[in-house]
Amino acid sequence: MILALGGIGLADQLTKAWVLKTITLNSVGFRFWGDFLWIVHTRNLGIAFSIGDGLNGVLRTGLFIILPLIFLVLAVLYCARSKDMTGFQRLAISILAGGGFGNLIDRILRPDGVVDFISFKFYGILGMERFPTFNVADMCISVGAVLVLLSGLGLEWGKKDGKRD
């Protein structure tokens, strides 16, 4: 678990460091497949979809640093001590926690916000021309959360005859 968590956190921070070094804030650095994928440099003081970016600093610190830190510690402890979790469940939680760890580093070390850099065209779906900009940590949080949900529904890869692996 620690390896996945640390690897994801490292990959996230390395990609963000590259963006900080390469792309000017609030600009598009690279475009791929016409207008479909942009590598940009934006900052987000809130959480997903900039929710909470207008909160005052103390409230934002409590909600976006302290609570996630508690969640991460509890998730790691639970995974390490639980005898009932499958390998799939441990992987799912590791991916989710790794993403949380990557963004938590930004929230602690970058007071001007989490670095986001992946932007893709959304073709007007849900009224959005472009999907909200995100990063490697955000992708891992999303994938990990979906895997945790699938696990909760009993949909796991590697299970044989309904038995846990």
Outline the structure in words.
- By secondary structure, the chain is of the alpha+beta class.
- Helix content is 52%, strand content 13%.
- The protein is built from four helices and three strands; from the N terminus they run αββααβα.
- It has helices at 2-22, 57-81, 87-109, 136-152, and strands at 27-32, 37-44, 114-120.
- A three-stranded antiparallel beta sheet has the order 1-2-3.
- 25% of the residues are buried.
- The model has no long low-confidence stretch (mean pLDDT 86).
Terminal CA distance: 16 Å
Sheet having the most strands: 3 strands, antiparallel
Helical segment count: 4
Radius of gyration: 17 Å
Determine the mean pLDDT: 86
Task: Provide the structure class.
Answer: alpha+beta
**Beta-strand content bin:** 5-15%
Strands of the biggest beta sheet: in what spatial order? Answer: 1-2-3
pLDDT < 50 runs, ≥5 residues: none
